[in-house]
Amino acid sequence: MFNNDGSIQFQQFDEKADSTQVLPRLTALRAALSAANVDAFIVPRDDAHRGENVPAGDERLAYMTGFTGSAGYALVTKDRAALVVDGRYTIQAPAQTDTDHIECVDMKPDAAQKWLVDALEAGSKVGFDGWLHTPNAIKTLREALAKAEINLVETNNLVDEIWTDRPAPPTDKIFTLSLDQTGKSAADKVSDLIKTIEEREADALVLTLPESFCWLFNIRGSDIPNTPVTLGFAIIEKSGKATLFVQPEKITADVQNELGDVVALRPIGDLTGNLAELAQDKTIWLDGNTCPSKLANIVTEAGGKLVNEADPVLKIKSRKNAVEIDGMKAAQRLDSAAMAKFLSWLDAEAPKGELTEIAIVKQLEQIRRQANSLVDISFETISGSGPNGAICHYRVTENSDRRLIPGELMLVDSGGQYREGTTDITRTMATGPATAEQKKHFTLVLKGMIALTLATFPKGTTGSHLDILARQFLWAEGLDYNHGTGHGVGAFLGVHEGPCGISPRYTAPLEVGNIISNEPGYYLEGSHGIRIENLIVVVESDKGTKDQPFYSFETITFTPIDTRLIDKSLMTETEINWLNDYHKKCYEIAASQLSDSDKAWLASATKAI
């Protein structure tokens, strides 16, 4: 989309949800069920690469249900249908779909089998597309359904059969990164990975996650919104041969020359035949939690043996090297200036009562574009005014766009994909005098964010261990938030990456070089939402010893936190000192990048409390 001045607008505001199409599409899918001789079909949000963002042609869940969230799945039988979503989308899902014909179900681990067993009779068959489900998930569901004598069977994708105007796969060009951006050559990364493959006594490793092979080969792309990857698959053999399977249109002569000594480039259509040939009497490493079930079946049908273990690149790339960390810090410095300009503008405009959520998103994106290295936004900006801020993953559209009423809280969660690195930041701002309730909620969230920031912990500690630090003050008041406290962040890659993070589900030990978000929140439906988010990097602590290392966090995000929303009486001296020191650094980092008026605003916003 282009703005009035001719510049490109990354974020779009069209209403992707269309509940009026749910019933006719369910009717068409049910006809396809009968033709395929199955009694139900599973429609996941995932594509073959398990990405949080997927190409337009893989938005099957949105096509069938109207729901546009980043996680969930639908279950469709001949007379019933369910949309299964997690706690982030309990408000969004029923608002977007047709609840007269689709029931919304909480995404518990056994939600699919329970619903299907209730909806189907013994002897029924449930169809699925083997490219869109993992071997581990299919095994678990198949075993659970078998107890009720319900069979899980692989079929063609029945949604694709009825989606007559389905968009074609993306063919955007691949581009390479230099050594001063990555800190390690692709050849060296492949060499190290081959050692890992040999140690596991495998003959080859199949990579199906684009962020893994893009990191490995030091390449990027623009196949999907907000995440600079190219879609495809890679096979790394212990012999040293590496092959990348992508759409041929993506490969330029320059890329071919730069990668030719490290990896062979093959058409994506060659993948299945190549894997079947390679797998004969060989041991193939596939991540059963992320790879398509289809590929695992190809290996076993060819007589190969599977190593079903985690993609080893995930852990390796999460430990950022010094060059990657420097790049990430540089990106946050650029973003600190952009955010200061934005907040200065918001403070001046919000009291006028004329701003809308879309206008706020557009202004922030245009300010970020002043940094010439901005490639994209890192996710669709969450711009929630007043009660919309309480919708955790709210996406503003032309239909939902709301005017910010002075006095409401304004929550903005946003980020940029700079050549230097990836950013992710949330700030909640006052737009007039704050109520005592708003201040209390905000301060409890801030105290949790500071507590996690200041944590010191022994080697081996996981994000699940630390999560309570951010929630403790809310819990003490009988309050909580229904999302993780933090997620891993890639270096000019996905804004959400594993295996590290801060929540009960993150059980991987935190390691030096991990960069994660620190973002507790609180959401009062119908009133306001509060979230405060910085990025932090795991560093060695001087409190440890050689025999017992300790780690801590270094904050790399520097944007003022709205002191007008703080109830100082609820804060300790340690917390106040941290905030004042933090604000001093915010000014030092951003001031030299600002105009006199924005610098004056920043000086006021960072005054000690």
From TrEMBL:
CDD domains from the UniProt entry: APP
Domain annotation Creatinase N-terminal: ranges: 25-161
Listed Gene3D superfamilies: Creatinase/methionine aminopeptidase superfamily (3.90.230.10), Creatinase/prolidase N-terminal domain (3.40.350.10)
The Peptidase M24 C-terminal domain, residue ranges: 549-609
Xref: InterPro entries: Creatin/AminoP/Spt16_N, Creatinase/aminopeptidase-like, Creatinase_N, Pept_M24, Pept_M24B, Peptidase_M24_C, X-Pro_aminopeptidase_P
Keywords: Aminopeptidase, Hydrolase, Metal-binding, Protease
GO-annotated molecular function: aminopeptidase activity
Domain of life: Bacteria
Domain Peptidase M24: 327-540
Similarity field: Belongs to the peptidase M24B family.
Protein name: Aminopeptidase
